[in-house]
Amino acid sequence: MHPDLSAHLHTDECNTLIKVFTSCQEQHGFLRFLGYCDPLFTDVQKCLRRERINQRKEDRESNRQRMKALRERQAKGLAEPYKEV
């Protein structure tokens, strides 16, 4: 299974691969069930995986910066430390 293939969610590279894959499925109605479009689908999966890995790296770095700023504010006494409820 793959994520939503909407164009606004992916890079231009992946959008191009997605368009080629979907056109293959539309043009080869029966052959797609025999694996005709499988190599294209593999390329789409690889591209989506690269996107996901890059997004994780960006999120991780963003979270590190946010936590660093929070710790600095806590050290200065400007923010309350985390308390469990």
UniProtKB/TrEMBL annotation:
Stretches that traverse the bilayer: none
InterPro entries on file: Cyt_c_biogenesis_Cmc1-like
Subcellular location per the Swiss-Prot or TrEMBL entry: Mitochondrion
CC annotations in GO: mitochondrion
Entry keyword Transmembrane helix: no
Coiled-coil intervals, chain numbering: none
Major localization class: mitochondrion
Alphabetic keyword roster: Disulfide bond, Mitochondrion
Classification via Pfam families: Cmc1
Positions of the UniProt region annotated as Disordered: 55-85
UniProt family annotation: Belongs to the CMC family.
Protein name: COX assembly mitochondrial protein
Origin species: Magallana gigas
